[in-house]
Here is the input.
Amino acid sequence: MKVIVPIKQVYDPRTVRVSRSRGILDIREAELMMNPGDRYALAEALRLKDEQGARVVAISMGPPEAEDILREALAMDVDEAILLSDEAFSGVDVSAAVVIVAKAIDKIGDYDLILTGCKASGDGSGQFAPRLAQHLDLPQITRASHLMVEGGKVKARHKLPDGYAVLEASLPAVLSIAEGANEPRYPSLPGSIAAYDERTVAIWGLEHLELTPDEITENTCTEVRGTLAGLERELGRVIKGEPSEAAKELTQELKGGGLMR
Amino acid sequence: MWDELLTPLDEVAEHMHVWAVAEVEDESVASISYQLIGAARDLADLLGVKAEAVLMGKDVEGLAQELIWRGADTVYLLEEDALSQYRTETYAQVLANLADDRKPEILLFGATDKGEDLAPRLAQQLGTGLLPDCTKLEVDQAERILLGTRPTYDGGLMETNACPEKRPQIATVRPGAVEPYPPSESRRGDLEKISVESVEEVTAKVLEVVKEVPEPALRHAKIVVAGGRGVGSADGFKLLQKLADELGAAVGASRGAFDEGWVGREYWVGGAGGITIGPDLYIACGISGAIQHFLGIKDSKFIVAINKDPRAPIFEFADVGIVGDLHELVPALVDELRKTRS
Here is the structure.
């Protein structure tokens, strides 16, 4: 069994600021990290490795820095890691990203499952898995948990607002793994040392994927027309002083804001 | 040469009308559908075209009338056994066939469980763009371009997206973003039955649907007082319970406190298997604020953090922070609340 897990590097939402005057993201102090939702997809793939001997391939499209999250995936015990990186890929929308990632998936070939996260933190829209499934002409199960792979089929729960549906799809299939579906994994120390010292991350660009810049342009559908600062969420205020004074100030603030009776 | 230049313009020009794809739930029209037809009505009026609803299912003809009363000029009715239950591939295929045939200018879906499963797949099949999770829809009338605005970065940044060249333009609309029109029984519209061509055999099928309602009280509490490793012991949570009682709040805990065995799993608040909450007021005591915890509470309207460590990440997203020992601050807060009450 071969499981491919496309993952994405995102900004840590706790470190992203919004410039209120300019209405744009202020990423000067932003830190990069693996999209938290993708950890569930990796953990599910690694469970299939442990229990059924699956081979797990992590891929990520992004700038050279995205190699970090692939190293982290290697440290979690992923078998192979591939970075899809090329200047032509920068800033593409989801429909073009699907075409690029699908090319890589075709090139890897001979796969049974593609597991993704549900929605990327920050500015994700949750379109990737359904679009990828359609592009590859494969069945999809979104918000999936409780996977069982057997006899050329995958059975999983699709999370509903008031329960779940049990779906069965023939392999290969694309599944987006629900948040909380499993226990996300974190790298082990020996794994981390090996991931940086001994393992390699392959880097595939336009040529490697046999893509042309025109194909990417043709498959780009949407553009961002503008951004504005949203709801007020400025850096918090810090209350200082002795406990009794701080408690008094906080109580006044909460009452003033109508946050308590 | 001329062909190449004309084709994209022709393609845009031949697409007309605004569609709302209705959702059917338990044999009735889900409320999001009336919001969608209301939005379609407004857009259609701006563009000088029709607002049309697509109704799919089995024995759903009786549901068409109210879609007309709520603003639809036309209801396309697609009834077939294969449509009796929602299935991604079947619904996407049937809608793609209809859209290829009728060439709508805009398609609206709910940013709901079904809409977010279906609309991106359909968009890919039609080779077009999708404006996701819109809380505001506008239209550039001259260019006939839909502008969809959505909140990103937890509402910190509003982003306006457009799909300028591909047609149809697809958008998912967040429930509650658009007011539906009240039903007007004098409104007239057409019902058009569409015969569904046999659908290809689907490769994903529904085995069963299970309803679950395990709703912890924590999820709906207006105020939550939560503790983390800094609480120090199971006894420490009694202190938090006092504060919670004073505020009429529910008590929660971080993953760390749950791991220590100080509270049961039902208290665990957080993104990675814990409960996701969005109270009016969240008071985090001795919680460092790891990313998974943040994801579980980010919808809170106001966050108060009490922590000894001034560099704890929780202060990065708290509205008010107090650097100090919760074992001193929480009792002081309880005292203060009692004082102001008496």
Remarks:
- Chain A has seven helices and 15 strands.
- Helices of chain A lie at 36-52, 67-75, 94-108, 128-135, 189-197, 213-218, 243-256.
- Chain A has one domain: 2-218.
- The first helix of chain A runs from residue 36 to 52.
